[in-house]
Specification:
299 residues, globular, two-stranded antiparallel sheet, 28% helix, nine-stranded mixed β-sheet, Rossmann fold
Length: 299
């Protein structure tokens, strides 16, 4: 593991055991989607003709049906590894990560001792990173949260979202992840009247083509805690592929029963007081982003 030294500070991510349950749920669906995309483009056979990448950064095993690959992950704003653990539970392998907080990095290293760990995202060069199948990143939420000053993407912390986009742009086109997953607080939906979230969808749409987004609540994934988060999936195979990862098949229940009794809702009170309009901070929302047709469609 390599540690890139620099200066700076950011609070570590919390709730690693809680978040991984939520992340693993759609990571399993994502694994199948990326695998199918690989078979269509000739990448599922590793070094076979037509393959974009070698097996250097993948683990292969032989099965009765041929080669099966472990999907690889690159992680930005990694915190203590909650996002990565969810993907690990779904069969993915984190190859590299980037986190600036010292305490969070120490926890991350315990869970992922073999991953290459970088320090400062502003100095990270995407051209030097190993190719991965999936990019996961939860950029800082402080400037998007309804409990903050709501500087939005213009803020020094939440504005680091654009650093993630720069890193992808630094990569050679053939080495860019086929799928990206962005996670953040529901306040991202209403920051600057929804314009900041529109920027997120637009920037990810430029790089992956197909975008789907949805608000997921932790209480429906096991722990008795209400914790809503926005997830945006970008897929180079188009918006239908992104939607297949993030949404349940038609006919299934949207949510299993929550693991808690309904009680007072502090978050909604804060939202009603500080929300700035646009997309609702509280109610679960979802949609597909199709740059060639319209800005977004919300269900």
């Amino acid at each position: 593991m390599t540690l890139k030294q620099n200066t700076g500070n950011r609070s570590p991510r919390r709730g690693v055991q809680q978040k991984n349950l939520q992340n693993a749920s759609f990571a399993e669906k994502l694994s199948g989607s990326v695998s199918m995309a690989g078979r269509k483009t000739g990448t599922s056979a590793g070094n076979a003709p037509g393959s974009r990448r070698s097996n250097t950064w993948r683990e292969c095993r032989v099965s009765d049906w041929g080669f099966e690959m472990t999907m690889t992950v690159g992680s930005l704003f990694s915190g203590c590894g909650g996002f990565d653990i969810g993907f690990k539970q779904a069969g993915f392998k984190t190859i590299w990560a980037c986190e600036i907080d010292r305490q969070a990095r120490a926890v991350f290293r315990r869970h992922f001792p073999d991953a290459e760990l970088y320090y400062d995202i502003t100095e990270l060069n995407g051209a030097t990173l190993a190719p991965v199948d999936v990019l996961i990143f939860g950029s800082p939420c402080q400037d998007l949260s309804v409990a903050g000053k709501r500087a939005g993407l213009a803020g020094a912390r939440s504005g680091l979202f654009m650093e993630a986009m720069r890193i992808v742009d630094d990569m050679a086109p053939e080495n860019r992840p086929r799928v990206a997953v962005w996670e953040n607080v529901p306040g991202a939906l209403s920051s600057h009247g929804g314009r900041d979230f529109g920027t997120v969808l637009g920037e990810m749409g430029k790089r992956w083509g197909g975008i789907a987004y949805r608000v997921l609540d932790l209480q429906y994934f096991g722990p008795p805690q209400r914790r809503r988060r926005v997830f945006v999936v970008g897929h180079s195979g188009g918006w239908r592929s992104a939607g297949e990862i993030l949404f349940e098949p038609e006919g299934m229940r949207w949510n299993p029963p929550p693991r808690r009794e309904k009680g007072s809702n502090i978050t909604s009170a804060i939202t009603r007081s500080f929300g700035t309009g646009g997309a609702d901070d509280v109610k679960a929302q979802a949609g597909l982003y199709m740059p060639e047709i319209s800005p977004c469609l919300r269900g």
